[in-house]
Amino acid sequence: MLHAAPMAKENVWGGGRSPYNVSYGKMMIWFFLLSDALTFGALLISYGTKRFFSAVWPDANQVFKSFPFLEGNDLPLLFVSLMTFILIMSSVTMVLAVHAGHYGDKKNVAVWLLWTIIGGICFLGCQAWEWTHLYGECNGLWGAFTTENMPFDSFQGFFNMHSPAVADIVVHHSKVAQEASHQFFNYFFTITGFHGAHVTSGVIFNMVILINVVNNTYQKRGHYEMVEKVGLYWHFVDLVWVFVFTCFYLL
Amino acid sequence: MSAHNQNESVQALYEGDQSKLYSGIMAHHTNVNSPESKAQVKKIWKIFWILLLITLIEVTIGMFFSKAMPIGIRNFGFLALTVVKAGYIVAVFMHLGDELKNFMITVLVPLVLFVWFIIAFLADGNYWLWINKDSPVHAKYEQVIKK
């Protein structure tokens, strides 16, 4: 009895079992997500650096204040709150699909996966609307503020002109404000675009595994671990959005 | 149909022997209506409400109070709430909280690099501000920060 505990400890690394209690595939998706987190982190940190260097910066409450069919009203952050809600909701439906997978419950895996796909498509639709709207506001996507000495009224709407100090810089040092607009939108389209590409591939992965679920692939295999792996990717996409939301819309 | 589903040895090579893996809520269960299953579903929805509540708090602050708050406190608050949300997603939705401690550490330790990244960019930014402290825009920048 005395040596029972050390024996158990040795066995963890003694071969014949996974020391981490995870399969190869699941461990690799975790490490992939780790590297992806570093990529998104690099993008967000360089955005933060540029912002820190700049005397003025576009104000989220001014840039993001429109809502579909209610254009022209001042509704700051309302639309992005809806997008955030959709993505959190789709994360919940995904974790419910994973949960059903632990119980080999094919029907519920399929139903929750379908809801997740619908949520992902809704989110992408919202993003398409937001990009189209901002395309109209900026007269372009990347590099819309690269013409030399643009008049300040082509970007003053993005700044908090109620603050006298900000308004002073935008009007009298418009180059600084133009540069800030340029950087803000370049980073915005790059980072939300990269995130949107992840959502798109996540929706495609979800569709593939939904087809497999319906075709009994995982029933035959004896487990639904594939749902769990794709679920990890999907939650990661939600996780990145949490940080994108903070960096672009709140701070 | 697809041959690889029938080939147990190849499957085992890629997926491992699942019977030796996973315990607790991540093990393979049979009864989806069991109390454990229902408790887990209840937990998932509880986390959903927490995430929604935090988001609503953030948006409310962002919409109505962010102009009136000291910028340092506001930013610290937003970042703290973000980290709390991220923690719930990773621990519960991604089930990292249900993995072995060894594995949790293996995944989380490399993220410590971010601490260095953030310190490095703040230091760089401070230096930039310092070398530009005599420019006319910089004096106004101080006003923007301090209001």
Structure, described:
The complex is a heterodimer of chains A (251) and B (147). Chain A has a domain at 76-250: Four Helix Bundle (Hemerythrin (Met), subunit A). Chain A contains 9 helices and no strands. Chain A has helices spanning 4-12, 24-53, 60-63, 78-102, 106-138, 164-172, 174-214, 217-221, 225-250. Chain A has 251 residues and is an all-alpha fold. The longest helix of chain A is centred in the last third of the chain and has 41 residues, at 174-214. The model of chain A is unreliable at 1-7 (pLDDT under 50). Chain B has a domain at 113-147. Chain B has helices at residues 8-15, 35-65, 71-93, 101-108, 113-131, 136-146. Residues 1-5 of chain B have low confidence and may be disordered. Classes of the chains: A mainly alpha (251), B mainly alpha (147).
Keywords:
heterodimer; A: 251 residues; Four Helix Bundle (Hemerythrin (Met), subunit A); 9 helices; disordered N terminus; B: mainly alpha; 6 helices
Short characterization:
The complex is a heterodimer of chains A (251) and B (147). Chain A has 251 residues and is an all-alpha fold.
Calculate the terminal CA-CA distance of chain B, rounded to whole Å.
69 Å
Query: How many H/I helices of chain A?
Result: 9
Q: What's the pLDDT, averaged over the residues of chain A?
A: 88
Strand content bin of chain A: under 5%
Task: Give unreliable regions of chain B as ranges.
Answer: 1-5
Outline of chain A: elongated
Our measurement of the CA-to-CA distance between the termini of chain A, rounded to an integer number of angstroms, reads 58 Å
Q: Which geometry of chain B do the CA atoms define?
A: elongated
Mean pLDDT of chain B: 81
Q: Counting H and I runs of at least 4 residues, what is the number of helices of chain B?
A: 6
What is the subunit organization of this protein? Answer: heterodimer
Number of strands of chain A: 0
Fraction of residues in helix of chain A: over 70%
Backbone structural class of chain B? mainly alpha
Give the CATH H-level superfamily of the domain at 76-250 in chain A.
Cytochrome c oxidase, subunit III, four-helix bundle
